[in-house]
Amino acid sequence: KQICVLVSGSGSNLQRIIDATISGEIKNAEVNLVIADRDCYALKRAANHEIRTLLIPRGKGFSAKLSEAVSTDTDLVVLAGFLSILNNEFCEKFKGKIINIHPALLPKFGGKGMWGNHVHEAVLKAGEKKSGATVHYVTSGIDEGEIILQKSFDITSNDSVENISAKVHEIEHEIFPKAIDQILNNTGKIAFITDL
Ligand code: GRF
To answer: What does UniProt list as catalytic (predicted)?
Structure first.
């Protein structure tokens, strides 16, 4: 099975996914293309594994170029810290085959502006008792697609944006490969929610 990963940042989730395809945690699959919308460390990680990379900067024709670059044979398009919005046409073309990881417990704390530490700031400000990460299908509505896998942890009074971010990353690295294996290999229940 062929996985295409879209990235914009450091790519620690990309690294986990690549490692999981190699170790067999994600079975019968390989990352065969990594696309970035900007120069970022994730591209270097892909290159280290001799995975084909493409840099498609945002701007005129972005969605069309992206759509052209992702082969229709692709089994799963994985957004791993990808900061551009996919247009309706792209979402329709790969309907049911695009997933994203979000650094909070959707359906709360999703949508425009809810990325990076902004999410954790909003969670803390709202006095939430829990946060976590969510793997979900991508539709043209931002962070609105069906939830695939979610895991949470309790927020304590000592928690700061920085350590919430670290805990969320840890959970992401655990649930993302799991969700990808489930989707590609039909192992276990697809949509479920679990607690840490
Ligand atoms: C993750 O926290 C993810 O939830 C968000 O962007 C971050 C990407 O981190 N969408 P990395 O580049 O995988 O380290």
So the answer is: 102
Give the position, in ligand 1's atom list, of the atom nearest the Cα of 103: 4
- What mean pLDDT value characterizes the chain? 94
Residue 4: strand, helix, or coil: strand
> What is the residue whose two structure tokens read 């957004």?
79
Which domains does the chain show, CATH number per domain? 2-195 (3.40.50.170)
Atom of ligand 1 nearest to the CA of 16: 13
Q: What mean pLDDT comes out for the span 75-103?
A: 96
Tell me which residue has its CA closest to atom 10 in ligand 1: 81
The single residue listed with the structure tokens 């009074």 is: 157
CA proximity to 133, closest of 159, 108, 152, 110: 152
> Quick check: 189 pLDDT over 70?
no
